Automatic annotation (TrEMBL):
The keyword Transcription appears for this protein: yes
PANTHER family, A to Z: HEAVY METAL-DEPENDENT TRANSCRIPTIONAL REGULATOR HI_0293-RELATED, REDOX-CYCLING DRUG-SENSING TRANSCRIPTIONAL ACTIVATOR SOXR
Protein's cellular compartments: Cytoplasm
SUPFAM superfamilies registered for this protein in UniProt: Putative DNA-binding domain
Name recorded for this polypeptide: Cu(I)-responsive transcriptional regulator
Keyword Transcription among record annotations: yes
Domain (HTH merR-type): residue spans on this chain: 1-68
Record-linked InterPro entries: CueR, DNA-bd_dom_put_sf, MerR-type_HTH_dom, MerR_fam, Tscrpt_reg_MerR_DNA-bd
UniProt organism field: Roseibium sediminicola
Name of the coding gene: cueR
Pfam families on file: MerR, MerR-DNA-bind
Principal location: cytoplasm
Alphabetically ordered keywords of this record: Cytoplasm, DNA-binding, Transcription, Transcription regulation
């Protein structure tokens, strides 16, 4: 199948498939005229990559997972460890986002949201530097 059909069937944009080829994650055959020819095994790799990326695995993690996917003698413990590490990363990101949400929520609560010019959100973002801008305008 050509790259367009591989794109359609894998759910990946053509540009992404070309990128995956450039970095060695997929290696489609080439016809005599130079066109890529994707086999069913290539399509399986593309689907695998699409799913792994949608779950947040990095390119390097995908490379490692693909290696394990193709190794019929793999230990499932290896795959499990990679996934557990990803879960820890997701938990860390969730904690960061929850903290960010708390700060933003506190800023919104502190803001009157009316016609006044004073704004706690701007004050926080500027770190108190907004008076420097006011002073610059007066000179």
């Amino acid at each position: 199948m050509n790259i367009g059909a591989a794109s359609e069937q894998s759910g990946l944009p053509v540009k992404t498939i070309r990128y995956y080829e450039d970095i060695g994650l997929v290696r489609p055959a080439r016809s005599e005229n130079g066109y890529r020819e994707f086999l069913d095994s290539d399509l399986q790799r593309l689907k695998f990559l699409q799913r792994a990326r949608s779950l947040g695995f990095s390119i390097e993690e995908c490379r490692e997972l693909l290696s394990l996917y193709e190794d019929r003698n793999r230990a499932s413990a290896d795959v499990r460890e990679i996934t557990k590490t990803k879960i820890k990363e997701v938990d860390r990101k969730i904690a960061e986002l929850q903290s960010l949400k708390r700060v933003l929520s506190d800023l919104v609560k502190a803001c009157h949201g009316d016609d006044r010019t004073d704004c706690p959100i701007i004050d926080d973002l500027s770190g108190g530097l907004d008076t420097a801008f006011e002073d610059r305008g007066k000179s």
